[in-house]
Records
---
Amino acid sequence: MTMSKRDTYTPDSLLAVAVRVFNERGYDGTSMEHLSRAAGISKSSIYHHVRGKEELLNRAVGRALDGLFGILDEPGAVDGRAVRRLEYVTRRTTEVLMAELPYVTLLLRVRGNTTTERWAMERRREFDQRVAELLKAAVADGDLRADVEVRLATRLLFGMINSIVEWYRPDTKGALDREQVADAVVRLAFDGLRTQAGA
Amino acid sequence: MTMSKRDTYTPDSLLAVAVRVFNERGYDGTSMEHLSRAAGISKSSIYHHVRGKEELLNRAVGRALDGLFGILDEPGAVDGRAVRRLEYVTRRTTEVLMAELPYVTLLLRVRGNTTTERWAMERRREFDQRVAELLKAAVADGDLRADVEVRLATRLLFGMINSIVEWYRPDTKGALDREQVADAVVRLAFDGLRTQAGA
């Protein structure tokens, strides 16, 4: 109890602490006791903010999902040729992942043991499905190669984007800036590593 | 003790059981008791085969690393233009990942709490470094684009390849075959999703 400080948390700042602990220990491995220690306030103070850890998980993955689904309503994702829209969604997904790094990291690690986790996985699949449809439309337009199965191409595309959570650390000295990373993802995904000369 | 069966394990078959448990529970979360239950033999029978769980981890990640480093000595990785060698290594890395799926999965999840884990991470970095050098040579030859930083390109390339462990399940009905996946990785990595018409 000596460690307890005055509870000056807002919903957002408490969420940020919880997400850090979830990412470090895993959601299953995190108890209210761990959250209380990391926040430096008592468990009953935390219960003053939320009903329990699942509510914190719900808010955290909800924030990541809102960021991702928001992209699909932006003009760049709605208007124009499918290939341009897919390019836009690829860039923005990469940007949102970096901007909301701890929240998207948590979303990608969710495994499906609770209602909230299963809901989050279902929403992730929905997002992937929306992107797969865009990819399919661009193949039908003749703008994207037809010799890679759509589901496989979508998986490899998200595999590349999502892997950024493993190494991107915005606060590290000499860290790449977001635009540089997003440019690289779009270039590799759409045009590949090769130059014309290397073909 | 009623569950114990006669110990007919070979080093390889016992390793396969251990790797499955490590991947399910995490290495840190696995005790000798868990291994004993999963194998259906007593702990002392396991100690007859190995000194402890770290030796099993060492053999498992060693098998994955032998598979990966073996690629770099194959003629396709040694002879010819850098871009062709990189293409070869990309294809073979994807194939080895699928052929040695549980072992490579474990290698990719290792986090560095023990000597063996730190050694495995160091060897992984060495492998990535060897591939990065190949990429750099191909850029110098003018065969690969110079507008994506080598370290970033290497990370995104491995991000795409390594993400396969998240979804590839060889025994699933209708599973993609290895060649189809390896072809897709090479096409996307080197030439991207776009057709000439879509440019």
---
Amino acid sequence: MQPLRSSQRLAQRMLSCSQGRISAYRSQYRQYTQLSNSPLDNPAAKASAIEGAASDTPSAQETSPSNGATHKVMTIRRPLGARKAYYMLTGGVRIGTRLFEPVLLRDACTCSMCVDPSSTQKNFQTTDIPPNIDIKSQKTLSNGDVRIKWKNDLPGFGADHVSVFSGEFLHPSSDYTSVDIPKPLLKARAWNAEMIKEDIHFLNYEDYMASDETFNRALSELVKNGILIVQGVPNSEQSVEDVAGRFGNIRDTFYGKTWDVRSVPDATNVAYTSRYLGLHMDLLYMANPPGFQLLHCLKNSAQGGSSLFADALFAARGLSPEDIHTLSQATIAYQYKNAGEHYYYQHPVIESAKRSTFGLPSILNINYSPPFQAPYLKHSAQAVSLLKRNSALRNFAERVENPANVFEYKMQEGDCVIFNNRRLLHGRTAFSAVGGERWLKGTYVDSDVVESRVRVFRERFGTEKLQRDERDKSEEVSSTA
Amino acid sequence: MQPLRSSQRLAQRMLSCSQGRISAYRSQYRQYTQLSNSPLDNPAAKASAIEGAASDTPSAQETSPSNGATHKVMTIRRPLGARKAYYMLTGGVRIGTRLFEPVLLRDACTCSMCVDPSSTQKNFQTTDIPPNIDIKSQKTLSNGDVRIKWKNDLPGFGADHVSVFSGEFLHPSSDYTSVDIPKPLLKARAWNAEMIKEDIHFLNYEDYMASDETFNRALSELVKNGILIVQGVPNSEQSVEDVAGRFGNIRDTFYGKTWDVRSVPDATNVAYTSRYLGLHMDLLYMANPPGFQLLHCLKNSAQGGSSLFADALFAARGLSPEDIHTLSQATIAYQYKNAGEHYYYQHPVIESAKRSTFGLPSILNINYSPPFQAPYLKHSAQAVSLLKRNSALRNFAERVENPANVFEYKMQEGDCVIFNNRRLLHGRTAFSAVGGERWLKGTYVDSDVVESRVRVFRERFGTEKLQRDERDKSEEVSSTA
């Protein structure tokens, strides 16, 4: 059982790792190809010749920054009185009438020497860009693109290396990325019970599975309302996996890929009447709770047993800035210590992006699940005072649980509800299984998987903008409720 | 295809959600039982009578805080000049010679009324604890436990409700939780190449699978070094799942539950010689990159093709406090837009806990994977200036890639390496498949899963403390390398 130390076994197989080897490896960067189907690769990758491989030039020497850019510090007032110094560019390289930082531009080059066309991997490292890199020449093409040649380019990139940037990329409003930066809840329409009763969408199972337009609608609904219901789902234990499979791979947990919420009728045993189940989120005792949950109703002939949903985003948006700040700082611990597992994690109640957008706090996720709370830590282990934290938490809980904000819906056989587990709380009213049966089958999908699908479908179908009047309405209700 | 609005379908099945209903639900909290095998439940849960259910008292009225605790603000100097106000308790309820905050104590009660014994769910909400709760009586028992009865207890908890706290729980050094707060990298021994060559552990497959002592050793090695090698793994495509299965469920991704890194010999095609693969971490374009990676070597008769590993924690610990701060603030975006997927996420290079421990930054994860970097965002979208960020990143990259810090090991058939993907970078030297073959099969396991297993095994086998001399050695090398 005693494991052998490496020195006893390594001697004959360890290759010496001499100084300078890594640099030698690095000079091969722009040549390497990756052919396997590992996560490092495009599964469909094929070997491809890389342009310009025969024209390497000697490495440029790194020098201290001297590219002509000068910076001045500007202090910007931020919400809640915090101040932060930002650097404002007042120099740099000039393209047309505007100024750019050469290092950022060089880093963004996506030519086939810089980014492998088949694997989409980057063939150089940001840290290898010489700080004194500069533009040697530039030319605006007829289509508005700008072609740039470099002075003091990266080691291994010769005079033939040319970067081309689109007019869109260079536009003042561009932040150098085409990606919708993850801020899913910013695009959400926070709802109370009245609003969601009017707006919840029901999609037909056949359409959802077969039509990309319908599935795109489902994605939009999940971004906006964080909940939708697929109807007419076949009465099979496999179905919930099929519905989830539209997004991508399922999130497996120690509960299994899918799991059952089931009661069996037995009038003689009071235990088989299931009571009210308080509003909660699932699996907050993990660092990465599942982003989305699916519940497929296989049977619901019981009396009672309605599903409850509450939008924590609606509750959070109506809080005072002070309470939002407190709940962003204060963490609550969740724990599951049972049945051979011991999960434990502390989350802030409100997870915000570092920077706010348009003055609104950029809420990314909300974490609140009272039944799974671990004991509070002693106040000295917390960044926020107990009184402040409890007061903010009470204001938040009152809004979450306010009946005017709780959507109640009795699931029918064939319904599959899909909802955001990092935004909505869910629960269930009491029910009696006398003469009836209630059986839901559930599964999870990670936010990462759903967000990838959202991006791919947006690129295909275009972004669905929120109606301006809907957004206004949402903000109005949030601020007064 | 056009989905029907809720109002068209909901009318007949929507139950009215009247004011006050939630309060009524809530009064049932301490009575509800949960019988299914859903994630809300202990899979082995059985219905159980709950003590004291017949002795409810009317709700206490909430009043303003008046439990005798007074607070004064103390300003503590923190690293990097930041200051934060903490509240120091100078009042509260007295137990023995010490003072406690009644709300925290009440929240921590784990009696069978407060926490369901079978599901381990909490039966009340923190926000329902009246701020004026106080201790009615206390008694120290012969075993050192303290038994407390409450004044102004939670609604629904009668005079028979008694809380018992152990002497250990009430000890001044207790932070009210028995859990090892997630700070995995704090217990790590950061290594350079020389250190890991001496200390990497090889475990026998049969022992690893069959002996809990050996598996406990594996867990300790993963906490300490972040890497180990299991030897003698059967030459089957199923084996890597078996090795991973010791931790719990596998993390499925769009690459599949397991995936192949494979080259096929074909001397006529230069593409089938795989080149150097730069140091990287996997799947940083997800919000939740997998915590651990397994690679099982099925074939390695190729020339070259050694595996490379570098400990980013070693690199980070040797940085200046300013660089650590910069890399905790600066985010780098990662992207995978290929083959019908579009993943994108921004991570800080160094993910730290909010509070430092013993003056050391509490590094939780490190995120650095140059080949998958998305274009830098424009500087105005970043909290840290470009010059500062690039300088810190260059210092970090130089340390990560320093050959003295890179461990090189040629995997043998039957080896399965397990390593921390949020701490170590990995790569591969070039190899020629002429006359040989290289085939690794890989999979992932989430940090959550591994950490649960670590807690369960620690409770069983006790904590393995780092040898004091090892820790000293590690810190010494870190600070001078």
